[in-house]
Design brief:
The chain is α/β, with parallel strands linked by helices. It has helices at 2-27, 47-61, 71-74, 77-80, 98-109, 128-134, 228-231, 234-247, and strands at residues 32-36, 64-68, 85-88, 113-117, 137-138, 143-151, 165-172, 175-176, 184-189, 207-214, 217-222.
Amino acid sequence: MRNRFALISTLALLGIVIFTVADQVKAKPKPRLLYLTQSQGFKHEVLPESERVMKQLGERYGFEVTVSQDAASEITADKLKSYDAVFFYTTGELPLTEEQKQALLDFIKSGKAFLGVHSATDTFYRWAEYGELIGGYFDGHPWNEEVEIKVEDRQHPATRHLPPSFRIADEIYQFRNFSRERVKVLMSLDTEKTNMNKRGIKAQDFPLAWWREYGKGRVFYTALGHRPEVWNDARFQTLIVNAIRWSTGNLR
């Protein structure tokens, strides 16, 4: 009798624990992401499509997306408290004060996430800390065609869905002020399967996605994303979703 009572008590306690954990999981707020598409330089035609896709992905995969073309109103110490991640598809010198720039860096260092796609490296050339944060600066795009991409790290959550290599048609960047010593490269152009007789080629290494830690925060960047068909490619969408989930601590 005493053993039966102990068993019933244990099961009841276990039930309470299970329901408590379930309630905590259910109550966990969705990651909140600011998707900034402000263009102070070249304005990509794909931006509206990228905004539509980001909203759709957020609804499908459980993160809230706020789209804005106004960095000055959103990148403030107070406004950033509302977000878990900031995602740039931007160009040029965005109109941020020194205080706002520091607020963005402090936001990431505190343990939040920063992501960039395509022309995020064509942004803030006059702000050296930003170049160091994102890992490099745009230095031309010798290719806008189908290319072969090597997946250098298939263990990372953002790229483990990809095969060792794949082909995709997009505008392919090269970079300056880039060093593999500062970042972890996930994907790169396969130069052995690419036409290297293009005008304007300056580099020898052509990384196309990488990550790094920044203080307690995480940074992710991919150079892909110029064409609408890329934004509607399941491989690219999964890359973006998993990068968001990983950088905000929701995927290992």
